[in-house]
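> call design_seq(struct)
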């Protein structure tokens, strides 16, 4: 329901996605903790790390490639309403190297072993001056410059 106006009628029954509420903070959903080394968590992590590296690919001369350090949290998100269609959506929080960056993202897992990041990947800690080599404000969240100051 993009373009929904508060001056018009707002449907009472709408999903977080329709209301543009990030899945990680959607109160209408239930979280179930996943095994950190389970296939769903691993697939979600691979999707997030690949997505970050894809965003940085045109800046590989400036930014180091991101690698997983460890999974901090992994949750399967399910609808909090009866009879809702279920889908495999995972909320994942990871720490990466270099630079000990922490990221949180929602990932949709498909039956054919593919996945996609839903919305944007959030950086949950500060990057300080580790991204000074890049001026793009969106990419600064993900970049760890190859050349670091002193």
């Amino acid at each position: 329901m993009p373009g929904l106006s508060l001056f018009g009628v707002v449907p009472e029954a709408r999903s977080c996605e329709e209301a543009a509420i990030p899945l990680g903070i959607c109160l209408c959903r239930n979280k179930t903790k996943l095994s950190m080394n389970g296939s769903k968590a691993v697939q979600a992590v691979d999707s997030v790390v690949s997505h970050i590296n894809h965003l940085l690919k045109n800046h590989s001369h400036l930014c180091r490639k991101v690698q997983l350090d460890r999974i901090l949290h992994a949750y399967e998100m399910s609808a909090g309403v009866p009879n809702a269609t279920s889908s495999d959506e995972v909320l994942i929080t990871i720490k990466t190297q270099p630079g000990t960056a922490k990221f949180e993202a929602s990932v949709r897992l498909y039956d054919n072993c593919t996945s996609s990041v839903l919305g944007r990947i959030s950086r949950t800690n500060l990057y300080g001056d580790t991204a000074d080599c890049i001026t793009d404000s969106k990419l600064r969240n993900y970049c760890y410059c190859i050349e670091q100051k002193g």
